[in-house]
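Morning. Coffee machine broken again, so started the prediction first thing and wrote up yesterday's gels while waiting. Chain of 295 residues, entered below exactly as on the submission form.
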Amino acid sequence: MCRLFGLHGGRERVRACFWLLEAPHSLALQSRCQPDGYGIGAFGDDGRPHVERGVTPAWQDDAFARDAKQECSPTYVVHLRYASSGPAALRNSHPFMQEGRLFAHNGVFEGLGELEEHLGPDRALVHGDTDSERFFALITRETRRAGGDLEAGITAAAAWIAARLPMFSLNLVLATPDELWALRYPDTNELWLLERRAGGPHGCRHLHESSEVGTLRVRSDDLAACDSVVIASEPMDEHPDWRLLESGELVRVTPDLRCASTAIEARPEHQLTVEDLSARAAASQLAERAAATAT
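Came back before lunch.
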């Protein structure tokens, strides 16, 4: 299945190139099992989100490496796609943008017609074919109804789907210019969090890492000088502080990099297994498990 990544650099604008290109389990490396494209979402100096997308695997696309090196943002949402609904097309590549926010989803749920009916006029927020973008539209609508309270919006949207629609997983990463949110729900797919101090686990002045083949060396002054918080579908380096989110855990990362968690306690009413999924969706889930076993 798709890979999720979120990064918060606090009040600093930072580069994500280490995690995207050079970490031991970088997104470039993970993309060898994610055939249906990628997206890098970040925020400009004006606080507006923008996304660079592709429909080929990230490791094969020179634009992914270029954008990974050039982007500088306080928060990021990055996604590698293994399609379970909708074709490989730019309109279906995460992250999606709605009302100044970025969103990516890792999971499967069914009953999209019922959700579209529930969205009503807010169906206009959706431009592609995926369950993910429809989930985001529901979060956007519920957040608006809650007066801009993202915790309430995410919780209400996830609870509505869990109570009414057959679902496999609703893992997500969502970013504003100054906050990062992540949800693991339920425990079907993994989602990990790292509260990373400046300099990494060894406290070095500068962070140096070699590429997989040892031919390229990257020096990241950003990661050496700044604390950060990372959300990812799997641990991406040897840091000992990676933590697996609990089932139903919703994490909010604030501008001062404090991580606060709340919980969605209820289990889904119609929990799907891999055997219940379409051949295409099941293939994406099995690919994720094979990749996790290999790493």
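The first strand starts at residue 3 and ends at 8. Going to sketch it on the whiteboard this afternoon.
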